[in-house]
Write a structure and sequence with these properties.
Elements lengths: L1 H16 L13 E11 L2 E15 L2 E12 L3 E15 L4 E16 L8 E14 L4 E14 L2 E17 L2 E10 L6 E11 L1
Antiparallel strand pairs: 1-2, 1-10, 2-3, 3-4, 4-5, 5-6, 6-7, 7-8, 8-9, 9-10
Length: 199
């Protein structure tokens, strides 16, 4: 199923790249956003809702954070908090490369007495490209390395992602994103959408 998602995303990138002339414009790093994702961890499905934002301190650094909820179908849910810092670097008139470091904390609340409550700490360092494919479509590719501690058991692995963002008006956009995490014993797949208001 993931291969089909990747094929659809690649088709979207190709179509976007073939449309219209491009004009140089800067990316914003000050915004608020909210989103939903369908998450699959070792064949266990969950729904994720989150809201957050980013604040550019100047052209070279921004801080960001989010609050969320990850609800599994097996009567276990996680409250999530994420904070991070990023450094955008202008590579061309159309592309920024963003280096980032993020820390996230997830705490489970189980309504099933057979399931243990779980605390998960994750530190992720990564890079993401932001590229204007057309005048109102942005393409993203990301890769990172995550270190995760689950109740004292630690592991590390890669995190990969890709997405498309469509600007309805210059300040408001919607996006679709897919990602895959290879941290720990179980791979995690995520397919999500979000809406963003930038300033």
């Amino acid at each position: 199923m993931l291969n089909k998602k990747m094929l659809l995303l690649a088709t979207g990138f190709a179509g976007a790249m073939s449309a219209g002339p491009l004009f140089a414009k800067d990316f914003s790093y000050t915004y608020v956003e909210a989103g939903f994702a369908d998450v699959e961890v070792d064949n266990n499905d969950a729904d994720e809702f989150y809201a957050g934002g980013s604040l550019a301190l100047d052209r070279n650094i921004f801080v960001r954070g989010s609050l969320g909820n990850l609800d599994f179908n097996r009567n276990q849910e996680f409250d999530t908090v994420s904070i991070g810092v990023g450094h955008p670097m202008k590579m061309s008139d159309r592309t920024d490369l963003v280096a980032s470091l993020d820390y996230s904390f997830a705490e489970s609340e189980s309504t099933n007495s057979a399931l243990d409550d779980i605390d998960i700490d994750t530190l992720t360092g990564g890079v993401m490209s932001r590229t204007w494919l057309t005048n109102n479509i942005e393409g993203n590719l990301s890769a990172g390395l995550a270190y995760q501690d689950v109740d004292g058991d630690s592991d590390a692995g890669a995190v990969l992602g890709a997405g498309l963002r469509v600007y309805i008006v210059p300040q408001f956009s919607v996006a679709g994103k897919i990602s895959r995490s290879f941290v720990g014993d179980y791979d995690t797949d995520s397919v999500g959408i979000n809406a963003r208001l930038q300033f």
